[in-house]
Amino acid sequence: MPASYAYLGPEGTFTEVALRTLPEAATRELIPYVSVQSALDAVRAGEAEAAFVPIENSVEGGITTTLDELVAGTPLMIYREVLLSITFALLVRPGTKLSDIKTVTAHPAAQPQVRNWLKANLPDVVWESAASNADGARLVQEGRYDAAFAGEFAAARYGLETLETGIHDAENAQTRFVLVGRPARPAAPTGADKTSVVLWQRDDHPGGLRDLLGEFATRGINLMLLQSRPTGAGIGNYCFCIDAEGHISDRRVAEALMGLKRICLQVRFLGSYPRADVGPDEVRPVLPGTSDDEFVSAADWVARCQDGRF
């Protein structure tokens, strides 16, 4: 396997900045790809060891392109996550004034994060989506658009000027990125972990989603993300992308996954990996009756009952 990481490019994306915060990135060749799909396909094809892509932001929720790519196709697995605070700059060709701007571009996920700023400062501008924020900067450099929302650090890379900085509609906006590779044994639990799965129901029936969520709730497992995605099989047909607190080696998480495997048409395990938002000392205590020791004790009691030793 090549010692390289693919990432959503071109150079100068927030994705690249977040990727470079990983210590192991310093020992890998970092290769930009034009889209999330092409970066993940590079891993599937064995052209890269792993891919680093955005998966969620604190303003709009899940990045649907990434979620859909993980839902479909050859299975992949999440190994790491990174949180990056996001603020945008308005990048233009040298000499461009705010009054000159008629068209702007950026990644679609950027639009909800700058919508109010646009309304207040450029109400008549035409928005065009780009494959990434850095790609939007490249398109401005080429003269395709008048301005791009991107990281201020991308200006020098594409020979642009920064017209405005610190643009964001929501304070403390963050984007979550994940390092995705081919399936293998998950890393050992850290005590502050997250488990991601995709669930498909057997059929559509009243209380169906409640049944799925009940497997987590009865074991005291907190959910951190729940998003439905269409399966492509027609209106009303959805699968559910879920992030849950805990590691697959935790008894409560393993038993929840076993319960889901029994009642779901399909379960896709996307990985157990360290959380980026908290450390082991900050994780909420498990609910009474849901610790590993209590699961082991309960299983031992059942075994003794079966042996007539109760």
What is this structure's SSE topology?
Elements: E1 4-8, H1 14-19, E2 29-33, H2 36-44, E3 50-57, E4 61-62, H3 64-71, E5 77-85, E6 88-92, E7 103-106, H4 111-121, E8 126-129, H5 133-141, E9 147-150, H6 154-157, E10 161-167, E11 174-181, E12 193-201, H7 208-217, E13 223-230, E14 238-245, H8 251-263, E15 264-274, H9 292-306
Parallel strand pairs: 1-2, 1-3, 7-8, 7-9
Antiparallel strand pairs: 3-4, 3-11, 5-11, 6-9, 6-10, 12-14, 12-15, 13-14
Describe this structure in words.
The chain has 310 residues and is of the alpha/beta class. 27% of the residues lie in helices and 31% in strands. It has nine helices and 15 strands. The strands form three sheets. Strands 1, 2, 3, 4, 5 and 11 form a six-stranded mixed beta sheet that branches. The longest helix is centred in the C-terminal third of the chain and has 15 residues. The radius of gyration is 22 Å and the shape is elongated.
